[in-house]
Structures are given as C-alpha cells and as structure tokens.
Specification:
21% of the residues lie in helices and 36% in strands. By secondary structure, the protein is an alpha/beta fold. Strands 1, 2, 3, 4, 5 and 6 form a 6-stranded mixed β-sheet that branches.
Length: 90
Amino acid sequence: MKIAIPLNGDRISPRFNYTGSFFIVEFENKTVVEKRMIKIDESLSLKRVRMMCDLEIDILICCGIDRCSAEQLDFHGIRLYQGVIGYVEE
C-alpha cells in the first residue's frame, strides 16, 4: 500500500492543488518499507491526479482538495482522506 501526503515544509499542505512536493510512504504487512519525498512542478490538478495514478498511490491524505480532483481520485480507485492537518510524521 502506498500513501501520498502533499507537503508544506514538514506539515500537511493546506491544498492538494498548490503543493510543490509529496511525501510517499509505502507499507507491506503493516510495516513501513519506504519513505521518500518527491518534488513536482506540475500545477494542473488533473495532471497531479495522473501522477498519483502513475505512482500507484492507494491513499491520499490531505487538508483541502478541489471537487474535480477528488472525483478523479475516486474514479481511479484512490481513497481520499481530507480535512487532515498537522505534521507529516504524525
């Protein structure tokens, strides 16, 4: 399972659409097997969704997201947990 979290420094970004990087965590059997940060320079929301698909993300955790992106993530089977704030490591 792979989880993506949009970053704003060491905190969860307030908006999926405006972050410049994502924290990716991969789990196997409830154990973290990889953590990494990826930088992005794509500003179009639908291309960000496509990137989540290409990275085979299962879950996106974010604070805020536009309705179109949320619907596209759902369409592609990526679970969305929004309204989450705080530090990424928490």
